[in-house]
Design brief:
Blueprint lengths: L1 E7 L2 E7 L17 H15 L4 H8 L3 H8 L7 H11 L3 H15 L10 H11 L21
Antiparallel strand pairs: 1-2
Helix pairs in contact: 1-5, 2-4
């Protein structure tokens, strides 16, 4: 609904003007999500949460300050090797950074991705195994294997 000026006896008042019944809103084009922008924003957020400067992180990651700045601003597409180096400099797993990017993408796409186990699956697990699991290490294994140490 919009407002339109209407003059009555020289006094201008605003009158609500409704949309016609034939009105159909224009379909909006979906927002284009650029992955490098989301990655850059997440990297910047992580760095700022740690209270670190671009200079500190670029030195630790062994990448030029200018290039890291361009990655954070979404102007450069970083290779997987470079992302791994930046994440190592930020002392976070690459998977954690990518998880934050994934969560942002899901939100931008209008998806609601729960970060908890749905009740139905939790109940099914409880019935099948008679316990609650809080992580993959809680799953019963028929044979436990030890990591190979070299």
């Amino acid at each position: 609904m919009t407002k339109q000026p209407v003059s009555v006896n020289g006094v201008v008042r605003w009158k609500d003007v409704g949309q016609s019944e034939d009105f159909t809103p224009e379909p909006q084009e979906p927002k284009v999500i650029v992955l490098r922008h989301e990655i850059g924003e997440v990297l910047r957020d992580i760095r700022q949460r740690q209270g670190r400067t671009l200079r500190e992180v670029s030195h630790s990651a062994r990448v030029s300050l200018g290039y890291l700045s361009e990655v954070e601003r979404g102007q450069k597409e970083a290779s997987s090797e470079l992302l791994a180096s930046i994440c190592a400099a930020l002392e976070i797993p690459l998977s954690q950074m990518l998880r934050e990017v994934s969560d942002r993408l899901a939100a931008a796409e209008g998806l609601n991705v729960p970060d908890t186990v749905p009740n139905e699956l939790s109940e099914e697990f409880r019935r099948e195994y008679g316990m609650n699991a809080t992580g993959s290490m809680d799953l019963p294994h028929t044979q436990r294997t030890r990591p190979i140490v070299r």
